């Protein structure tokens, strides 16, 4: 067993586990502190779809995809839109380092731990311009086993290290303060011990304190996540200048309530610097979960490109705001209407192929690594079992045989949110206008062009429905889905250098204080800039935990101390 002083990791999510893995490989002891119970180890990553951003991978090449570090970096810069000299200094450096990692070590690092990728998807297809937002090629590497598998490959070696005495877990410990010594170095944390909880993973737990604690070590690494589960914090940081004219009133929530941003604020109160807190990543295709685990639990639809997207007033969204293309531009457009929801109109043919739901619990076939269940996904006429359950029980779905009944149902849902009354004739016109573009092999409609282009990628040909007329009875019945705004990620956070060392408000190193994952905006205080290419959230947790863990190992190893 090592005689080195332990590194204190606040947060048992993915970035914390990765850092602990890197530290214990160097025989450095770790104490992992988390306010939730042991069943929540792995944090938000457990609930994820397990997408990883890799560049020029073996899986891409086997699918005939030509990618490169240079192309990925160009896509990143076009998407991030870095424009703040001071606040974007470290985020830009982190972004470059991440793309280098994604084009080099990411794939072998994960595969050496046992990760296998099922497919390479094309998320965030972009704004329709080669020099604009989005991925030029598919880069979303879907993990076989999704989020729980990514958690497993790091949790197992960390638990093995715990058996050797290198890792100590302190669950149900809520940190309230970072301890700073007389030299200005972070040397520990203190807070309260919460009463035991048997709450299931992700569910709210008691905040009743039964004791106090103080833990000291060599350094403190904050890996506690962002603010996505704290709707009031989301609203408080909402950038009205970019996503106005007002703060949305209603959200569904994409992460558990304990993702509340407390530790970022505690670090800030201790003298740490935060940057880019107005940059956030929220989805526009959220469903209210009919079987919720946490408050206002929302599930994101991961759509194919074919659904007709209407705003709350019934107007079709303009090019290139199509499903799966440009999340934040679509969010900006929807917010500009003054309403906090929009509509998909589709049919059985589209939903059977193009509707996937984000989250490990919504994809039991891939989560359980079941080839038999996966075959059902490929050949079903009504979508996956979870999609069918939402159609049956979800309050955002309307299924009807005719358009008149469909619009009547949409108006019933709109009235619940004081939304505008939709015109049957206006919606009929929007659908018929697009349907008319199906009469020839060529078209002027950008969405139909997108559908045809998407089907040229082999992995998407099975997933994307053949272009057809929405009002064709053969493709029915008709389906309308109310799409809610879904909170998810913080893109800003604690400012750090490339070692994950937090900076103070003077822009200088805060000795002994480190941050990783979403608490650091996935690195530097916001490596994504204003927007994301997807697959970069889990990847960002892995990379920032890797960087911080290795830097701490080098700085605080017994050998370093002797030197």
From TrEMBL:
SUPFAM superfamilies linked: FAD/NAD(P)-binding domain
Pfam families recorded: FAD_binding_2
Domain named FAD-dependent oxidoreductase 2 FAD-binding: residues: 7-538
Keywords: Flavoprotein, Oxidoreductase
GO molecular-function term, one example from the UniProt record: oxidoreductase activity, acting on the CH-CH group of donors
NCBIfam families named in the record: PRK12834.1
Protein name (Swiss-Prot/TrEMBL): FAD-dependent oxidoreductase 2 FAD-binding domain-containing protein
